[in-house]
Amino acid sequence: VDHTPTRFRRGQGEQVSLPPVSTGTPVGETVAQVVFSSLMQKPFVSIGPLQICRHKPLWKRIVSKTVDYQNNTRMDTASSEPAITAFSVPPFTPREVHERLGDVLNENTMGTVYSLEGYPSLAVQEILLDGLDKGDLDAIKTRLTVILTLSHPGVLKHHQVVEDEGLIYVVTDRQDKTLERLLAEHKRRKIFVPIAVILSVMKQVAAALAYLHGLSGVGANGLVHCDLRPANVLISADGERFIVADFGLCRNTLWSESTIAGMAVYMAPEVLLHNEASPASDVWSLGAILYELTTLRRLDFLKGKEPAEVFVDGWKPNLSGITDGFIKSILERIFVLEPERRLTARELHDTLTAADIPVGELGAQYAMLRYECGSLKAALNNAKARIATLEAALDARSAEMVSQSTETASLKDALENQGKEHLAMIKALENRFTQSNSEMNRADSQINLSALPRLIRAAHTNDMETVQMLANKRNYIGQRDEQEMTALMHAAQQGHVGPVELLVRKERGLKDKSGWTALIHATHNNHPEVVKIIAPHEHGKRNKNGRTALMIAAQKGYAKVVSVLAPYEEDLTDRYNKTALILAAEARHEDVVEVLDPTDDRGVTALMRAVGRGDMATAKALVALQRGRVAHGETALMQAVTYDNINGIKLLLPHESGMHDRYGATALMKAAYKGYLEAVKLLIKKESGMKDNYNRTALMEAATRNHLEIVIMLIEYEACMRDSSGETALMKAASNGHLEVVELLIEYEAGKNDDSGETALIKAALGGYPKVVELLFESEGYLIDKSDKSFFGKLEAKGYFEIVSFLRDSSRTSSTDDYSYS
């Protein structure tokens, strides 16, 4: 055992030599076997000065050491006391098995389990082979061959397989109790399973599954259980160990429609939908067991529907029945549709054993870790937001420089064109003076934008007759000037409705040098009537800067043009992920904002909607325009609290803190009411100590709804305050039976009466909460008038006889005078 050559003295002078043990020696199969076979040959043996006999205490210690060493080469089990492996189970013949079959211990999908007479530590599983084809039979035998080699304290030990005329008998270790029976006992007594037991079950079964899934030479996924249910988890006699049993040997026959009905609650979606079992499906089954242990209710995601109707893209589990945050977080990582994203058994085991934390401290540890994680996330989000803002500013500056460069080039081109036009006009005038009257018409034609193609010139000057004449001639359509502008673009730029109507179907969709369409030209020059004509044909197209016509109109503040374009382009974003609404808000065009996202008749603004849907980019742009407004008595900050939008709260806190809704409630009160811890942390400095129209505080809201962590945070700010009825937070917690909150508030608010003369103790008694009554009695028992027939009559009428008896028979340990003096 100590990895050194060992000699044991047996009897009078006899010695047994054991081989030296190295770290590579399978200790459980050498030292333990030799010691056992040697020690058990005679009634008494001597090992140095220590005398032992056959009742096995020393043997258990020896095997414990060897099995511990052996398991350390794999993965330690969840139990602190490893299983005692039976090293000498005799081989049984079919006849011996029949003769020794005892009582029925259990019946399951694999068959019947019997006791084995003469061997109280063994059991026999009988498997009926009738109806199985050769393929199923071969699969069972192959799986049993693998199962016989398994050696793990969390996996039921299988010693021998005996085949006899259509039956298979499997000799295993015996465990008389199952997890199913444990659950049934708790359900019958309506007592929840202790958290320590739940975590022990999960830890041990996860360890067993990790061992099975990690087996080599079995398959790519190791050995998959296929049938993990409470009935297949055995419990040792001392209730400390949980052993996985009853592997799904006969999947093809067991998983008939009638059988699936009872097993479906433990089956993963991929098993129900495609009959595809994997290590991930075993973990799903373990999650279903965890849910049942925690709630005493079977999981029912299907609710009578077909799996294909329920398990669709975007499916999320409803875990509202789980109140323990640690367990809920585990289930959220198990109940995911994609098997590859699910927790593995090893990851689950590591999660439960990462730190040796007492069970009673897990909740506090989890809360602290969650708080720290939330703080880190908030800091990271702030940093990301700051980086994004700086990047956006840099991009905007770059875009502005590009835009200025483009405009400069356009101005240069325009000046060049104007120069050419002026030269042409001068030349035309000179010709007019030198030519005769008969040539006047020709000269006149040269002075009207003579450098432009004829159709373009006509469109530019709104010459409808010429446009009508040339629009049907194919060789004129699509002609461009030096800026690659078409006749339609010129007409749109000038706001000429007639030419636009004639040309829009013939030249739609074309772009000039800058990537501008006719629609963008009309928008840029604020011609809403022309925009209305072209929009159905060219909406959605962008210029070289990635901007649409609507974005240009929104940034320039052209509200009428925006109203025309919004139905076509309002959801599009530019290269910086900005919508037209964001651009309008950044440019402070409030009338355009109202066109794009109008304030409704209830007063709900675009800012409130953006905060509600978590669109922080839009909210940041809108906050300067729409902060401080009230809709249905609520502000945008209150909306952010309602949706637990932490970034929204941070954005709006400097602008809207301290405001009240129509009932006088603040954002802090709403956060306390809903139990949003991070929101309370942000709001507490700005809004603590405030009261609503009924003088209620945030502490009272948290105490009423049993939000313990929030109560802890608010005590120093709002303890001892009273509402309009004279009630304190302690009274509200006592009225609702919140024991832990009452315990926190006693030292601050005990001994007070409300306007009707009732104390927290009286309210707890009238509410029927005996434990709260007992807790408060030490502080407020002296205020109870034991002769008050009305009070005790009310309690008796409600059937609270236990409370009546306690209040009448109990007396405080400290004197009334002490409290009176206080």
From TrEMBL:
Organism: Giardia intestinalis (Giardia lamblia)
Chain positions covered by the region annotation Disordered: 1-24
4Fe-4S recorded as keyword: no
Domain of life, per lineage: Eukaryota
Molecular function, one GO term: ATP binding
Residue runs in coiled coils: 373-446
Domain Protein kinase: 99-352
Mapped ANK repeat ranges: 545-577, 725-757
Range of residues in the leader sequence: none
Transmembrane segments: 191-212
Name of this chain's protein: Serine/threonine protein kinase
Keyword Transmembrane helix appears in the UniProt entry: yes
Sequence ranges of Basic residues compositional bias: 1-10
Keywords: ANK repeat, Coiled coil, Kinase, Membrane, Serine/threonine-protein kinase, Transferase, Transmembrane, Transmembrane helix
